[in-house]
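Example record

One chain of 240 residues, shown exactly as stored in the release files.
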Amino acid sequence: MKVKFDATGEVVVITGGAQGIGAALATAVNAVGGTAVVFDVTPPAAGIEYVEVDVADRTAVEAAVQGVLEQYGRIDGLVAGAAVQPRSSVLEMDAAEWTRTLQVNLDGVVWACQAVVPHLVTRQSGSVVVFTSGLAATGYAGAAGYAASKAALVAFAKSLAAEVAADRVRVNVVAPGVIDTVQFRGANAGADRDHWQDTIGIGDPDDVVGLLLFLLSDAAAITGSVLPRERAFAKLTSFI
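Predicted structure tokens for this chain:
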């Protein structure tokens, strides 16, 4: 059964949408009739609406959201995907790296939600999608800051979902799995990359788009959920 999503007239804010999964989603939202507005520190591909925003800056996020509302008169969805993934051991990580990781990965999501969700509550409609990671549950050597921030996001999103459920605003979490993005390639090379390829496989940004469009649509009558999107099927050779 084929399902066609229709986002005609809808506006979706995507933080960290200049590349990777966010960029693929922005293209898809536009393709199904909506308008994707990317908040990022670097511009996305041509044809994607863009606002230069450092999501760690609460004031800048609030101003950017207000600008979208003034231009389009509405926001229907928020996908919070902006993140950094530095690599260093806990004993070597300095305070600046730890602070910046939490500011972008955790605070940035909080500021975006605080700016967007009140408008969804007023409209009694809308969807928020937050990205976590499998590392939130397992940890990973050299990625403690990233894993910690992603674990915190799960608790934050579930709490927000409980707060706005009565207002018909949905908040869900997606764990995209290992996806071949610029960020992933920068943080994982050599043995690390081989590890992920040999265990669960490395996916593509487009692999996640269908799930995100579903969660943004009214078809997704769920909230407070954490949905994994793994590409492990090819690795289940023991069952074949």
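Notes: The beta strands are 11-15, 35-40, 49-52, 77-80, 127-131, 170-175, 226-228.
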